[in-house]
Amino acid sequence: MSKPLKQIHLAAHFPGVNNTTVWSDPAAGSHIEFESFVHFAKTAERAKFDFLFLAEGLRLREQGGKIYDLDVVGRPDTFTVLAALAAVTDRLGLTGTINSTFNEPYEVARQFATLDHLSDGRSAWNVVTSWDAFTGENFRRGGFLPQEERYSRAEEFLTTTQELFDSWHGDEILADQATGTFLKDAAAGAFVHQGQHFDIHGRFNVPRSPQGRPVIFQAGDSDEGREFAASTADAIFSRYATLKEGQAFYTDVKSRLAAYGRRPDQLLILPAATFVLGDTDQEAAELAREVRRQQVSGATAIKHLEFVWNRDLSAYDPEGPLPDVDPVVDEEHISRGRAQVRMYRDPIAIAREWRRLAEANKWSIRDLVINTGNRQTFVGAPATVARTINDFVQADASDGFILVPHITPGGLDPFADRVVPLLQERGVFRSEYEGTTLRDHLGLAHPDAAAGAPAERAAS
Question: Annotated binding residue at 160?
């Protein structure tokens, strides 16, 4: 007897300041005007996606002392945008990245509980950490937190916010204002937390929200990050885009759940994915090559090379050969506030390998960056892309995907119009929303459900 088909989860990442974005395309629009967010969100909701995802940057990135070109539009506040989108959508989940290093549990819990009320139960929190002093300079605790303590603080931060969410129970509602009796339980909202990172007590001032707590996402790929997700999160972002790597990650993370009394279906694994569609597979492949060249201009190629070389390479021709000098190590990095900096653990070895590839393939600097950088995850005709996505999910390489289009805000439209109907025909993606909250969309139990719900265990 064959096992039933898994249902695919789909979400959309508003790309904003992202190296997958093609700014030069005539179809590209604003990355900060509200109408761009509205268009993107309504497309995702029209396609019955689970949620929209917004990343957040707490400082503009710099390279060589200048603002990095992708950050010229700035970085709008996540909570403000999501709250506004709650008013123009009805079912779409609203997920935001909020940092646990430079915020406080009370304020974050209050903001998410409020967003959950405003959206009727559609909020989600992507819990991230930050250890770099560059970002911390914008905050009163600038740079104080050693890297090894970031997950310790994140774990206690999440535990503390959950205690705040749980300080209200479902029956603690306003009773009779005429007589001055406001609450059935005088202890409503009361909390006390004493720990390594937080020592707070008081009353939480937002009643129990429709979801009880926001859905929790986690994005770390380290062993610590995987363990944190297995113990606490409802979903984890994955960066693995090939079938073999995806299956290995999927198996590893899911196998960790039993130690926390959780089932494999209580943690979703959702890789980020880019895509290029064409009328035929060949047309899509040609378009994908053009998109990649648009994403990597000559100036962008030089900037990317500087991540590894850690020196000013502006005098080099992007259409010429790689530098014959070695990267600079053991000095402050030329690029500040960029996750890519930490991707290259051994720059000397990377430079040696890149020179070998460039010589063997007769690649210029730009050619090398185009061919070694991130490629589109799904390329092909709509039927090809739909089949490939379904194959990934049914083969347990993921539970779905968070799609990142290269055009803002209309880049999601072709996928919604041409791929989603094919997934619906296969019976692996919803035609209508069956519930109202994000927990409903993701198949997650409410924290107030019977013992054994994942959110109940996450609080323990």
Answer: no
